C-alpha cells in the first residue's frame, strides 16, 4: 500500500504493480484472440512508462503530429495515426512518424493520400456504422450530423472505396462491453460488408475496457475469433486507451481550507476538477476517494472544492468516518487515464507532479511543474 503522506501534493501517482496486472490481461487477449492491441495515446501519454507498454502491445496510435512524434521517439515504433483533420502544416510530420494513416473523409483522402502512398504508408478510411452505445452526446461519434467518419451512403455515392485504401477504421465505443462491440461489428458488416474483402485490416478503435473487473474477456476473445473466422484475411486491430492504465493510480491532494455555506460543507483542495479532472465535469461523474463512502441518510456530507476561480469547480458529495481537517490528504482513485492528458493551466493553477510507485516500494518523482512551465506556455 502506498503511503500517500510521502508523495508530493498535488501529484498523479501511478502504481507499477497495478499496471502489471492490466498488462498481463491485455497480453492474454492478444495471445488468445490473435488481434493486435495498440496503445491509444489520447488516454495516457505518460511516456515514462512507454518502454513497459511497448513490451505488452503491438504499437501505438496517435491523434496528432505531436502524438505521432512521441510514439516514434519514445515508444520506439511508427504510429497508427488518425485525426479528424490533417493540414498542409502538419501532414509532413505525421507522415514522417506513421506507418498507418486513417482519413476521416473522402476529401481528406483525396487531398493527402497520394503523399502517404508514395511513402509506402498504409492508408485507411474511418467509417461511421451508425451505431454507438454511448449515451453522452459529448462522447458519441454517431450522433446525428456527426463529423466523424464516412457513412455507407457517402461511400456508395462515391462509387465504393477509393483506390489505395488498405484498411477501415471505426471508433464507436467508450468504456464498453463485448456485447457492444458485437453490435458494432454487426453494423459494420451490415453497412460496409461488401468492402471488407477489399481491405487488409480493420481497426476497431478504442473503448474496449477489458481490464475492468466487470469486463468479460472470454466473450471478447470468442467474438474476435468468430469475426476472424468470417474474414480470415483481415488483420484485426484494437486501440484501447483507458484499458492500459485503468485503475492504476491516483491523484493526491490536500485539504487547504474548509468552507461552510447554506448547509454545504466544502473541503477546499489544492487540485482542480476543471484543470486536473475535467471529465468529472464533462461526463459528468463522481470519482471514488480512498477512505470515503456514499453518504447515508443523516450522515455529514462533504463537497470537494477545486482551487480554480470557476464557480462550478467542485464535485460531491462524500462521507467520511471522521471530520476532515486542514492538512489532510484526499486521494482520488483511478486518475491516470484521461487526466494528465487533459490538464490545463487555467488561472495559472499548478500542474500536479508526476510520480511512479515502483514495484519494490520506492517512490520516484518523475517530474514537478512550476512557474516556468506556465510562463513558457503563455509566451
Structure, described:
The protein has 379 residues and is of the alpha/beta class. The chain folds into 2 domains: 132 residues, Beta Barrel (Lyase, Ornithine Decarboxylase, Chain A, domain 1); 212 residues, TIM Barrel (Alpha-Beta Barrel), CATH 3.20.20.10. Helices cover 30% and strands 22% of the residues. It contains 12 helices and 17 strands. The strands form 2 sheets. It has a 9-stranded parallel sheet with strand order 2-10-9-8-7-6-5-4-3. Strands 1, 11, 12, 13, 14, 15, 16 and 17 form an 8-stranded mixed sheet that branches. α3 links the parallel β4 and β5. α3 runs parallel beside α4 and α7 runs parallel beside α8. 41% of the residues are buried. The mean pLDDT is 97.
Keywords:
8-stranded mixed β-sheet, 379 residues, alpha/beta, 9-stranded parallel β-sheet, 2 domains, single chain
Amino acid at each position: 500500500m502506498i503511503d500517500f503522506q510521502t508523495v508530493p501534493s498535488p501529484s498523479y501517482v501511478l502504481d507499477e504493480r497495478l499496471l502489471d496486472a492490466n498488462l498481463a490481461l491485455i497480453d492474454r487477449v492478444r495471445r488468445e484472440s490473435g488481434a493486435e492491441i495498440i496503445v491509444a495515446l489520447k488516454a495516457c501519454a505518460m511516456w515514462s512508462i512507454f518502454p513497459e507498454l511497448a513490451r505488452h502491445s503491438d504499437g501505438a496510435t496517435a491523434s496528432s503530429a505531436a502524438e505521432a512524434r512521441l510514439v516514434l521517439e519514445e515508444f520506439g515504433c511508427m504510429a497508427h495515426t488518425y485525426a479528424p483533420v490533417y493540414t498542409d502544416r502538419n501532414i509532413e510530420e505525421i507522415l514522417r512518424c506513421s506507418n498507418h494513416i486513417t482519413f476521416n473523409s473522402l476529401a481528406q483522402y483525396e487531398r493527402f493520400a497520394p503523399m502517404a502512398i508514395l511513402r509506402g504508408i498504409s492508408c485507411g478510411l474511418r467509417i461511421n456504422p451508425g451505431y454507438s452505445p454511448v449515451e453522452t452526446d459529448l462522447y458519441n461519434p454517431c450522433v446525428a450530423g456527426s463529423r466523424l467518419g464516412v457513412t455507407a451512403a457517402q461511400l456508395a455515392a462515391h462509387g465504393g472505396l477509393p483506390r489505395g485504401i488498405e484498411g477501415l477504421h471505426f471508433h464507436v465505443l467508450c468504456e464498453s462491453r463485448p456485447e457492444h462491440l458485437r453490435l458494432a461489428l454487426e453494423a459494420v458488416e451490415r453497412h460496409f460488408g461488401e468492402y471488407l474483402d477489399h481491405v487488409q485490416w480493420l481497426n476497431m478503435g478504442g473503448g474496449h475496457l477489458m481490464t475492468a473487473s466487470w469486463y468479460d474477456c472470454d466473450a471478447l476473445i470468442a467474438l474476435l475469433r468468430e469475426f476472424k473466422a468470417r474474414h480470415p484475411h483481415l488483420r484485426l486491430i484494437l486501440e484501447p486507451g483507458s484499458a492500459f492504465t485503468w485503475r492504476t493510480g491516483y491523484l493526491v491532494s490536500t485539504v487547504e481550507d474548509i468552507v461552510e455555506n447554506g448547509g454545504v460543507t466544502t473541503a477546499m483542495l489544492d487540485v482542480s476538477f476543471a484543470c486536473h479532472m475535467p471529465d468529472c465535469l464533462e461526463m459528468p461523474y463522481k470519482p471514488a476517494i480512498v477512505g470515503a463512502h456514499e453518504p447515508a441518510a443523516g450522515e455529514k456530507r462533504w463537497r470537494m472544492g477545486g482551487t480554480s476561480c470557476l464557480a462550478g469547480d467542485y464535485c460531491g458529495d462524500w462521507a467520511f468516518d471522521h471530520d476532515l481537517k486542514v492538512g489532510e490528504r484526499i486521494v482520488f482513485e483511478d486518475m491516470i487515464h484521461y487526466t494528465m492528458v487533459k490538464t490545463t493551466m487555467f488561472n495559472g493553477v499548478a500542474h500536479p507532479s508526476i510520480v511512479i510507485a515502483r514495484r519494490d516500494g520506492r517512490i520516484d518523482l518523475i517530474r514537478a511543474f512550476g512557474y516556468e512551465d506556465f510562463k513558457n506556455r503563455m509566451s
